[in-house]
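Many introductory courses stop at the sequence. We go one step further.
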Amino acid sequence: MDYSELVARLDELGKAGKAAGIVTIWGQAAAAIRDLLAEREWQPIESAPRDGTRILATGGGLGDKVDVCEYLPRVGAWETWGYVLDDRDDEPEGYSRPTHWLPLPKGPTS
């Protein structure tokens, strides 16, 4: 069973619950799983933060490699480990720009 099926099943079980507390708990569990899934799905780069937040990115000039990137507003391009993912004059518009992104995971708390 994948995560989407699990969420659907939790929703079903929650709606079938007799006690209001069970319905609430199942609903909260399903919502938490939905949030986790949304954080792990690759998003189009157009929706990525452009405020200096570091992200995981892939596609474009990165190919199938995943790398930590941040957007440089003063340059208008994405940067990763010291090089800028910007189009050269002989490349079509958007060739080097990453195509998808994920937020960086949170670090350990202790």
